[in-house]
# Entry
Amino acid sequence: MGLFDSFNISASGMTSNRYWADLIANNVANVNSTGRPGDPANKPYQRQVPVFEAMLRQKLLAGTGSETRGSGVRVSRLATDNNEPRLVYDPEHPHADPETGYVAYPNINILNEMVNLISATRAYEANVTTLEAAKSMYLSALDMGR
# Structure
């Protein structure tokens, strides 16, 4: 492992978890975005979730094959939640279906989003702690060399 690999691994985790928190904020902000039921051109917001992927690095060793080791995490793609929208009867709403009177809202559960936000925040904090610990070890090693 290189000298600054631990910094890069922690930084990739911090970046991924900050992106996750941004997506959660976007989901919560759009909880009341409406659409018309059955109208593909006017459908409600769909919840977005990140798909994380480990970044791997392979190091070829002479005569022994290869070694694979982690080098961080990244968001490989953005997935949308395809659950059915929440239907609310409100015939006076501008997006209400003219025949049924229902309005389609995103199927976003605020409690689940808050739990995910706590998870993203804790993971971010864990990466910050790891980064600080690595920095402290490197500074101690430099002090020993003096």
